[in-house]
Amino acid sequence: MKIIKSLILIIFLSIGYCYGNSEISNGIRKIQESMKNFEVDGCKIVFDKVSKETKGFKENCLQTYLSKKNNGNEYNFINNFVRPKVESLLEESSFLLKRCNSDDYDDNHLGLERGQRLRDFLKEWSSSLDLLCNIVISGSYVPMVFGLDNVKKSRAIIECQDLDTPFNHFRDCYDAYCPEMVVIPSGSFVMGGTDEEHRALGVDEHIWPWDQPRHQVNIKKKFAIGKYEITLRQFREFIKETGYRMPIGATTVLRVYNNRTGTLDTRVLFTEGLHYEAPGDDFAQTENHPVVAVRREDAREFAKWLSIKTGQTYRLPYEAEWEYVTRANQGYQYYIWGNTTEGGCRYSNCFDLDSFDRFQFKFDHFECRDGEKTSARVGKYLPNQFGIHDLLANAREWVDDCWHYGYEGAPCDGSRWGEENNGICYFGVLRGGSFFYNTYNVRIAYRNAYFSSQARSSMWGFRLVREINE
Ligand SMILES: *[C@@H]1O[C@H](CO)[C@@H](O)[C@H](O)[C@H]1NC(C)=O
Ligand SMILES: *[C@@H]1O[C@H](CO)[C@@H](O)[C@H](O)[C@H]1NC(C)=O
Predict the structure, then answer these.
(1) Is the pLDDT of residue 178 over 90?
(2) Of all atoms in ligand 2, which is nearest to the CA of residue 338?
(3) 5-9, 168-172, 216-220, 412-416: which range is least confident on average?
(4) Distance from the alpha carbon of residue 260 to the mean position of ligand 1, in angstroms
(5) pLDDT in tens, 96-140
């Protein structure tokens, strides 16, 4: 792996060199133009590299090992978990390579940070492969690395009961890992944002189509959603019981010295060594802070575990459900508190003057103070009309759907929108903003995704839905 790492470093350095040359000047168009060539070249290098690396990984780490020992738990772990994982990363990287080389790549506006994100994707994938390799080599796959076969149900089931009838607020058990859930009635709403909103808040024009066309969605069945984001305490219980392991390293906000301009710049970068217990500087996490730096797949594993514990169905919210909950029958507005930025610090842990003082990021911050620079304990801010906290900011939240560049063809019944992207659905959607999100990204309608199944950030966490069957 050392050789691979130094090769990657060389790739990064050469990309970094090109990046520096494509001078970033005024205006979005200009930035896109100047980065265009670099992007395409960068894609080729990065994704060819990933393909080679995953293939190399298979040969070195798996096949050699398999040939020596190929029985029992180890064999099962490799075949049932590691192999599919490596295959899916390979598929993902070749999908992205194709996308990078297609004519309409730039029409899809992957994002202005593409160049930087490509390098981060590679680091994310690489650290995931490191984890798998370490598990295989150390034999620490036994017992319970990723499987949930041994999860104990008994205690939870015996203690499970509704705390409140009628079914408004409840927990499926008294244990700390059972989140408080709120029942959301069925109903309809209009999903998406308008040009008027985008113009009013200064949203970059190239992402206007992402939350359009507006369309009516009918949610036919009631369901329950977490009153709060899943907390560090709850996540720790999952890790403790299952031995589940996650790759190390996550993207976070950093102040970095800019060699070219001689200034300190604010960047969002993959940072070695970060993980959910230590997601960055300025993170004084208590056990009641939202768990962050988790991949979408980690959130899903947590939901599976909780489902087994409680005998109920927990899962990530569908994207339409998330927006339905957030809008809470208040009609069309930009934020849960109305249309102006004034409610920012009362309702959301957004990028305010306190965050600005720390990070100096020059974009539209909220002109208020809430005393928080990074994440805050869940429930510190006012809830929306359904009584749900931290929807618009604190941690951004994974939802279950696949990414689409707009709502053309979206389902109107609140179901999960998946299976597309040529059958590849590794790229999950994030909803809401985070403590580092400006006035136009804390909008209810805002949505985004990153083209790496392994993406994780100190800014992202999740909350869960619990299905209600009657
Ligand atoms: C800036 O970067 C260049 C190239 O990496 C390096 O040679 C130089 O020493 C750096 N300067 C400072 C002030 O760090
Ligand atoms: C917010 O703006 C929308 C669209 O202009 C308008 O329909 C709505 O009434 C406004 N809401 C508030 C609370 O001002």
Answers:
(1) yes
(2) 13
(3) 5-9
(4) 8
(5) 766 666 666 555 555 434 556 777 877 888 788 778 777 777 766
Q: 3-state SS of the chain? A: CHHHHHHHHHHHHHHHHHHHHCCCCCCHHHHHHHHHHHHHHHHHHHHHHHHHHHHHHHHHHHHHHHHHCCCHHHHHHHHHHHHHHHHHHHHHHHHHHHHHHCCCCHHHCCCCCHHHHHHHHHHHHHHHHHHHHHHHHHCCCCCCCCCCCCCCCHHHHHHCCCCCCCCCEECCCCCCCCCCEEEECCEEEEECCCHHHHHHHCCCHHHHHHHCCCEEEEECCCEEEECCCCEHHHHHHHHHHHCCCCCCCEEEEEEEEECCCCEEEEEEEEECCCECCECCCCCCCCCCCECCCCCHHHHHHHHHHHHHHHCCCEECCCHHHHHHHHHCCCCCCCECCECCHHHHHHHCCCCCHHHHHHHCCCCCCCCCCCCCCCCCCCCCCCCCCCCCCCCCCCCEEEEEEECCCCCCCCCCCCCCCCCCCCCCCCCEEEECCCCCCCCCCCCCCCEEECCCCCCCECCEECCCEEECCC
**Which residue lies with its CA nearest to atom 2 of ligand 2?**
333
Give residue 8 CA to ligand 1 midpoint distance, Å: 20
What is the atom index within ligand 2 of the atom nearest the CA of 333? 1
This prediction has a pTM of 0.84
Establish whether residue 65 lines the binding site of ligand 2, counting it when its CB lies within 6 angstroms of any ligand atom: no
Distance 130 CA to ligand 1 centre (A): 30
CB of 330 within 6 A of ligand 2: the answer is no
Q: pLDDT tens for residues 32-66?
A: 333 343 344 555 555 566 556 655 555 565 555 55
